[in-house]
Amino acid sequence: MLIEHLNRQLRERAEQALTRNRRTAASPCAPQQRVARDGQPAREMLAFCSNDYLGLANHPALTAALAEGAQRFGAGSGASHLVSGHSLAHARLEAELAAWMAPNIPNARALYFCTGYMANMALAPALAAQGATIFADRLNHASLVDGALLSKATLQRYAHRNLVVLERQLSSCDSAIKLIVTDAVFSMDGDLADLPAMLALAEKYDAWLVVDDAHGFGVLGAQGRGSLAQFGLCSERLIYMGTLGKAAGVAGAFIAAHPTIVEWLVQTARPYIYTTAAPPAIAHAVSASLLVLASEDGTQRRAHLAHLVALLRRQLTLLMDAHPSLGWSLADSHTAIQPLIVGDNAAALVLSAALERQGLWVPAIRPPTVPVGTARLRITLSASHSVHDVLRLVHGLAMAAQDMHV
Ligand SMILES: *Cc1c(COP(=O)(O)O)cnc(C)c1O
């Protein structure tokens, strides 16, 4: 019965071009990657899909630190943080992350999590009990949505970046505890939340501003300090979640906030308490990543990435002007996330497949990850791409556009 029911639903998803397929990478995360799909042999692809924005996932300083961390601290942590799994490597990383965030959150304390998903599942349920209200952008990442749903708070969602609606919701809310929750860089669109205006609203209505900087940490702001630094914000009302598996190139996440908030998370947040601490070697490698982010190497990588983003946008604009009937559009993004919005699910898959035949790997993103009717290619750039790589992608899209035109 269950199997029949699931098989029927799987067939329905396939008919709507919603089946998701994994590819298996046979080489480290990099623009040139050997990947295999469904039992086929691995082939060399030029990839535009990782969130490894600075090309640190395979940086020699980080792989060396991971190996050294394993030698010093072993392979596993052995227990959760509150039992016996909290190591010197975790403690040191938390101190470094607290210092990293101190210019933006006075007296910040930082808490390391195994993943960003878990950090977001920890936050809202721990801070927003029954009677509290959470205000959330409609395009927030799934993990923020799930965290809000898991909490006992009332959830109010506002249209993407619509601060007029947000203010109306805040002004008519009589909860004692109010949490505004937002992506800093929206993960499928690449655009930025207006954090200064949102912080002003938080101050005006005595709310807290939770910022998920999964796509800003390491790339935005001087030294890659993230979106709060980019906007020059500083407030005790900020609760910051940064992830360490994207631009930082390793794994895990952290929450930085007022020390009382962090102590409350340590005492009560179930996704923090009831899970084995990440291997200390991971934390050791993240510490090495922070050094690279703040170094001249990091600065050069961010500058090169910005150059590639501008180049891609210029070239795609020319291409779309030449083929208006395709109905493609770019998002209002100046980050490494550059979605090419196609609209129809099947059309996005056809385009992704046409690129794949040319050895270009750009994933099609469909509902429910993005709103219905906005299926897209989610192009992500990395500092490890070359100008030539970007031009190859543009050429591949031009070839596909010609084919689809007839
Ligand atoms: C990737 C992502 C997360 C989850 O972080 P992981 O460390 O990958 O679990 C959370 N929020 C946003 C906006 C993300 O893009």
Automatic annotation (TrEMBL):
Q: Please give the superkingdom of this protein's source.
A: Bacteria
User: What's the name of its gene?
Assistant: bioF
The record's listing under InterPro entries reads: Aminotransferase_I/II_large (IPR004839), AON_synthase_class-II (IPR050087), AONS_Archaea/Proteobacteria (IPR004723), AONS_Proteobacteria (IPR022834), PyrdxlP-dep_Trfase (IPR015424), PyrdxlP-dep_Trfase_major (IPR015421), PyrdxlP-dep_Trfase_small (IPR015422)
Subunit structure, briefly? Answer: Homodimer.
Q: Which residues are recorded as binding pyridoxal 5'-phosphate?
A: G116, Y117, S187, H215, T243
Q: What class of enzyme is it?
A: transferase
Q: Does the keyword Kinase apply?
A: no
The residues that the entry says bind substrate are: R20, H141, T369
Q: Which residues form a coiled coil?
A: none
Functional description taken from the UniProt entry: Catalyzes the decarboxylative condensation of pimeloyl-[acyl-carrier protein] and L-alanine to produce 8-amino-7-oxononanoate (AON), [acyl-carrier protein], and carbon dioxide.
Which EC number(s) does UniProt give?
2.3.1.47
One Pfam entry name:
Aminotran_1_2
Offer an example of a GO molecular function term for this protein: 8-amino-7-oxononanoate synthase activity
Cofactor annotation: pyridoxal 5'-phosphate
Q: In which pathway does it act?
A: Cofactor biosynthesis; biotin biosynthesis
Instruction: Give the reactions, separated by semicolons, that this protein catalyses.
Output: 6-carboxyhexanoyl-[ACP] + L-alanine + H(+) = (8S)-8-amino-7-oxononanoate + holo-[ACP] + CO2
- What does the UniProt keyword field contain? Acyltransferase, Biotin biosynthesis, Pyridoxal phosphate, Transferase
Q: Which organism is it from?
A: Rhodoferax ferrireducens
Q: What is the designated name of this protein?
A: 8-amino-7-oxononanoate synthase
Give the modified residues of type N6-(pyridoxal phosphate)lysine.
K246
Q: Where is the Aminotransferase class I/classII large domain?
A: 44-395
Q: Which family does it belong to?
A: Belongs to the class-II pyridoxal-phosphate-dependent aminotransferase family. BioF subfamily.
